[in-house]
Amino acid sequence: MMSAVALQMSCVAALLAAAALAIVLSRSRNAAGLIYGMTITISVVATAAAMNWLVRGGPEASALVLPVGLPWLGAHFRLDNLASFFLVVVNFGGAAASLYGLGYGHHETEPHRVLPFFPAFLAGMNLVILADDAFSFLLCWEFMSLASWALVLAHHREPGNAAAGYVYLVMASFGTLALLLAFGLLAGPAGDYGFAAIRAAQHAPGAVGLVLILMLLGAGSKAGLVPLHVWLPLAHPAAPSHVSALMSGVMTKVAIYGFIRVVFDLLGQPAWWMSVIVLFLGAVTAVMGILYAMMEQDLKRLLAYSTIENVGVIFVGLGLALGFQANGLRLAAALAFTAALFHVLNHSLFKSLLFFGAGAVLTSTGERDMDRLGGLIHRMPKTSFAVLVGCVAISALPPFNGFVSEWLMFQAVLQSPDLPQWALKIMVPAVGAALALAAALAAACFVKAYGVTFLGRPRSAPAETAGEVDRYSLTAMFILAALCLFAGILPGLVIDALSPVSIDIVGGRMPVQANEAWLSIVPIADSRSSYNGLLVMVFITICASSAAFFIHRFASRALRRGPAWGCGFSDPVPAAQYSGESFAQPIRRVFGTLAFHARDHVAMPPPGDTRPARLRIELHDLVWERGYRPIAEAVGFSAGWLNRLQFLTIRRYLSLVFATLVTLLLVLAIWS
Amino acid sequence: MQLHSLAFDVSHTLAGGLVLISFLMLYQDRLYSLLNVFALHAVVLALSVAWQAFIQDAPHLYVTAAIALVFKAIIIPVALHRIVQRLGIHRDIEAAVGIGPTMLAGMGLVALSMVLMLRVTPEADPLAREDLAFALSVVLLGLLVMVTRRNAVSQVVGFMSLENGLVLAATGAKGMPLVVEISVAFSILIAFIVIGIFLFRIRERFDSVDVSTLDDFRGERR
Predict the structure, then answer these.
(1) Cα separation, B56 vs B59, whole angstroms
(2) Structure ipTM
(3) B113 contacts in A (CB within 8 Å)?
(4) pTM flag (> 0.90)
């Protein structure tokens, strides 16, 4: 019998083999079907194996050493409960994306730019999770980054994509540098890079603080923490849609895995101030991410910004878990940690679903700009239904899964009075308020996204002639939608499956949910709070059906189409509909002045002039303009200045060498 | 003891003489006299190496001394003389920095190398210490010659005198294998050949060996 980690590693090997096969076959016509078929099979096997591990309640970790990599280190791989959970997320996301790719891939104009990198990207993410020493971890991390970079550049001729790839590459290198330094600090002067040795070692408080900051920079830049998020809304939408789904839904989770592995597992017992930093960054990320999303008119970019918000929510959960664990409140820590992991799972489900939906819209209309879409619910009813489920789930509305994880998060926030530190006692409710704001804005944002894209009347010719997408894409979307509902009404199953992970990482678990009556979930105790997704769903169904019944029974049965009120115009054109920007306007008024320095410019022609009045909205991305552009300008300026060094005279070069030598000698003379 | 202190004094004198001749090089403003000073430099180097061979009982150092004498004191200066004659090079040297500041900088460099060497090698053999300090001064002064002159021939001379400093350092330290010294000597010879060919090419193209014409050719301002 093969050990569990060996099974996972052979799945990775099979994925790499699929990548190699794709290089050979990529120009043949049936390659897409074959490769995606292979990745589906492999991902399903890996998901099943990892799920089996979790359901068995987490046996002893299983390890494997391969004789590759650094000669004195080898390559260590290990499967434990945390890794199993993230393997489920990664491989299930991979299977869904492959299924979607079976249909979506037929529209690919240059399949040889996608097919080889897709299995390699999946393999890279699996390897990061399985790695058990710093060297393998960093190597696999870079492999994952480069594979996804190649996928971002799959359509490199489209405007903006090359720049997106460049920004992504720079940020990924920066992140890996931070991780490298973090592991260097963890390994200490002894230089043992195995995770087992790092876990066993004692770390000085200063080193712990630095490692936390470096992990927030390294893993945070990959996950999309504000202000390191700038690459994400550029790069994620640039990739083909099933890859966008993987990057947004799954790769950000791999980054979160890296953060959990180092900060919770390797660093040992946390200090309470660590949670302050994580909570603050998480809350800022959640609110800023969703505000950006609200202002966005490009469907895929809106989804990418919403990913940033969800990463913020997850980091808030992790910060809470750190704070509770530092004070020995194991039950509360387990609650916050489980909520964070639950949200990881949920976000991977509904964000993949929504990116698939955006991909379906893109395939059938060729448009990503919401202000050129509209009315798609009549032309793509099945896609619209699946996307509606995704939108409701991501807006954290019951009975879907998004509600459960956010509810658990708030239950954890409500435990804050137990914390002894006043800083945390005051900060955690404030973070909870920010979280509530983010959740409400997320609902508004997805009402806008769904309403403008799928409701109303078509705003362009492609939107008018759109048709339903192929059955593979629809199957993938419906499976994900069904899982969103399933995890929403049976959250107890998920919470129980997460308990071994929580025991491993924070040393406690939430109460067993399987014994609760009527599939309720009880985070702390019956007397305090409980939630029952099934009952809520039954209630909603009964109310909605009876309302529909009464309306249709006592009012007219016929579907009537009447003229919409056209603001006094007799023949309103579709462009006069309520647009995405109109929808965002109230929120822009409230938050935009502060967050984006937003200004509305109205050009009103004088009376008698027949020119139309024009409204121009001025938005500034302050993170980019205040943070990144000065850095880029400084680098450009110094590069331009240093460039002169290439054109010096021979004598000046000699003088440079001479001056350097004399300076070094002087330093030596003064210091020694 | 008597012999030892005599040995010390003589080698000290010779190495100090080398530094002094490096200073002579700094203020030469004619090519021929610069070449003569360089030949003198090489002769003193050969004497110093031979003296080291005598007091260290290292016969292979005599070979090094012979190489220094034959190549650097005779062949290279003579060849450079002929090049200067054949090319009709202007015989005055255009210095980029005035003589006075150059001399002051040279004194600063000698002081720096003394301070540095005496400080970083407190437990070494005193003979080797002094030798290394002088050798470092010679190297730095050679670099200074290269940096402050515009004429390609004088840059070659600066380079050669820098190499003399290296040889002085190498012989001062006991136990330097002969192979290393011979290979250093040959690399210098090859460098000389390459630079000589280079000089001819510059001359052919620009009618001058002032390296600033190279810069003009590249479209650079000085």
Answers:
(1) 9
(2) 0.82
(3) 665
(4) no
